[in-house]
Design brief:
Structural class: mainly alpha
Number of domains: 2
CATH class of the largest domain: Mainly Alpha
Strand content: under 5%
Number of helices: 16
Length: about 375
């Protein structure tokens, strides 16, 4: 029991540090552009490089799990993040910096996969996926005031990576001391990845991940523009509203596991999908600021638990041997959702910003439909016993 609890806590702490590390780039894009005197077209490559590298590891990491095992794999992934931080810190050339950020993407992708797989293989009572995702969110939130402090004090942006080198190195020491991590099948083949994808439950909910990520990303990217255009809310007020959204979103994830356990994955997904659609309906039909606040708040609370509910339902519905491949599958469809739907919704948003939220209704309808389908299937099996 103590061993499982320790590993769960180590997963949360590791994810927090990795999230802080992965969210360091975005606030410094403008600073990097001026520091290295590069064009807007060239600086735009940086986030894509990190994203592509992380996406590659979502697939290749599946084989690394079987080759290295979970403990050694986590050591390699954290060491990769530290290595990239050292390269970024000492980089004097933009192209060396580019290499550093590519390596950071590899480390981020590996770290998330290994940490989520360790959590997935712990006993069910320790698989707190909502809290897992909350720690990822907290890491992202913390990185923003640190970046702001660095920028306001005119400190070179790469000094931020000294913090990551320190925190990740301390964490790595504790990973070395970690005992009895869950064992995995050492004979994974690419065919195992394909067989998991052929599982209807995995495939249906992999697309639920795909659509959810598109909905969440588009909400965070386009809410500010929507509020300014349709509610006349000033640019100065928008950050405060978005901060409120993230507070509610993170709070929902902190307590989400209790709701998942009490209500059940599928029922909760149906309820939260309906609630998110209600939130969208309020902001699309309303005209008062209070309606905008209520709608955004409702969306934030409802969608906060959706991703961890899908994630935990998927890994708890397959055999232990299929958990690593399923974790990799979640990462792959997460990346695809971010890459494809963010672009598609961006095009629609540029035509008319309200389209962003109208499209989301169809995404949530799909999640509710799939959840209902498997809930009915579950009830039918129960009645046949």
């Amino acid at each position: 029991m103590k061993k499982n609890y320790t590993q769960m806590v180590m997963v949360f702490i590791g994810l927090f540090f990795v999230s802080s590390f992965s969210n360091t780039l975005a606030p410094f894009i403008t600073t990097i552009k001026s520091s290295y005197n590069v064009s807007s077209e060239l600086i735009a490559i940086l986030p894509s490089v990190v994203f592509i590298a992380a996406s590659i590891m979502n697939v290749l990491g599946f084989k690394l799990i079987s080759f290295l095992g979970l403990k050694k794999g986590l050591i390699v992934s954290i060491s990769t993040c530290i290595t990239s931080s050292i390269i970024i810190f000492f980089s004097k050339s933009f192209y060396i910096l580019l290499i550093g950020y590519f390596i950071s993407g590899l480390g981020i992708g590996m770290s998330y996969l290994f940490l989520s797989t360790i959590l997935s293989l712990l006993p069910k009572e320790y698989q707190k996926f909502s809290l897992f995702n909350a720690f990822f969110g907290l890491g992202g939130i913390l990185s923003l005031p640190i970046a702001r402090l660095i920028i306001l004090n005119h400190v070179p942006f790469n000094y931020t990576y000294l913090i990551h080198i320190t925190t990740l190195s301390i964490y790595l020491i504790f990973v070395f001391k970690l005992e009895n991590t869950p064992k995995v099948n050492s004979k994974f083949a690419w065919s195992d990845f394909g067989s998991v994808l052929k599982n209807p439950l995995v495939l249906y909910f992999a697309f639920a991940i795909f659509f959810y990520v598109g909905a969440e990303t588009s909400t965070t990217n386009w809410t500010g523009s929507f509020l300014e255009r349709y509610y006349g809310i000033s640019t100065a007020e928008v950050p405060n509203i978005l901060l409120g959204f993230w507070i509610l979103f993170t709070t929902g994830r902190v307590f989400g596991d209790s709701f998942i356990n009490k209500i059940g994955h599928l029922k909760l997904l149906i309820i939260s999908s309906f609630g998110a659609v209600c939130g969208i309906a309020i902001i699309l039909t309303g005209s008062l600021k209070i309606q905008a606040f209520i709608g955004i708040a409702l969306i934030g609370i409802m969608i906060s638990i959706m991703y961890p509910a899908i994630q935990s339902y998927m890994v708890q519905s397959v055999s232990i041997d299929d958990v690593p491949a399923t974790s990799a599958m979640i990462g792959v469809f997460n990346s695809l959702g971010s890459m494809i739907l963010t672009y598609v919704i961006g095009i629609c948003g540029n035509i008319k910003v309200s389209y962003v939220f109208i499209i989301q209704i169809f995404f949530y309808a799909y999640i509710a439909f799939v959840s209902s389908k498997f809930l009915i299937k579950h009830y039918n099996k129960e009645n046949q016993r």
